[in-house]
Amino acid sequence: MKKEYVIGVDLGGTKILTALSDLEGNILKRSRVLVGDVKDKDTVVTKIKETIEQVIEETEVDLEQVAGIGLGCPGPLDIEEGLIHHTPNLNLDDVNIKDELSDLNTPIFLENDANAAALGEQWFGSGKGAENMIYITVSTGIGGGVIINGDIYHGTSDGAGEIGHMTLDPNSVVKCGCGNFGCWEALASGTALSRLGQEALKAEEDTMIDDLVDEISEVDGAVVAKAAAKEDEVALELMNTIAERLGTGLASLINIFNPSRIVFGGGVSNSWSLLEDKVWETIEARAMDSLAEKVEIIPAELGSDVGVVGAIAAALAHIKK
Ligand SMILES: [Zn+2]
């Protein structure tokens, strides 16, 4: 039977998004299931199979027509083996997902979710045509993926691309989820913006952020951005601080990888117009001129689809090789 389709599975901590696409990446059918409260290997594997069966049955495609299944999953992973070492949100520890899904008789292509997202943007989103590209997603943390000569850069043990955990400030007392202090993600993410906003209120600064919430704990990045959009001075200053930190990290990435494009996604990217000037000012001050002038930064295109489209791209990348 002719292999005319691929399936992408985006394995998230709360839901599994699955889609069937043709070999051009056109999505024909989607499925979405919540993982639920019971999170263990058997439940997760059963739910993955359910979503795959759903998109197959509803399109009347035969599984034999599917050339491969791309599975985007939080790391750390061993891609070749199909091994998921550890995912705290799903309680998967040392699960060989290729073995678990072997009864589907279809090749499984495991990929780190952030790297898959990078590939998704490069194939089908804002990264189209960029052979050397960095994808960053800035929301509660900072994740990303590095594309070199059109391929994901995986590193020695499939761990490359943890850009959020480069140390931005060695003297920082802000502890990161990874255990280090002063990581880029700890200082420049939406969570960092939220923390700066909360600190401003605790210091009783004169800002409209105060009017937008009932409790200090309700100040998140979006609230600060909202006040900044209304030209609140304090909020604008906080956005500038985040923009400078983002620009500092980006300048390092530009110096190391010499990309032609940086694709910027995640919730914080919705405020790009408020960040852009300071980000560029910082890059121009810190990155090498000859490299900075070759790069463009553009917002991501795929939005909440990026995970599942990335998983499709991961499958296509293997099949078309
Ligand atoms: Zn970290």
UniProtKB/TrEMBL annotation:
Transferase recorded as keyword: yes
GO cellular component, one term: cytoplasm
Pfam families reported in the protein's UniProt record: ROK
Sorted UniProt keywords: ATP-binding, Kinase, Nucleotide-binding, Transferase
The protein's Enzyme Commission number: 2.7.1.2
SUPFAM superfamilies: Actin-like ATPase domain
Family: Belongs to the ROK (NagC/XylR) family.
Protein name per Swiss-Prot or TrEMBL: Glucokinase
